[in-house]
Design goal:
mainly alpha, 86% helix
Amino acid sequence: MIKQALDMIKSFLNGKYEALAFSYDFPEFLIENYDEMEKENTIVTDILNDNMPEICSEYEIGQPFDEFKQKTKVEYDKAKEYA
């Protein structure tokens, strides 16, 4: 599940996942798969759950796309370090 979560982010960062859809789908993915992700890698799970839901919700209420993408990349890079 960790790989799938990181692949979702990578698809978004590469322009293959529409931003608004990602902003809804990714937090839902984290909720639905939390237990399995936690078993795989607690550090990455914590990194993704700490800020990504908030980053996604900020985009949904009007945060500029470039800021959303930049914040998402920061979290992605942090998570990749521990994956």
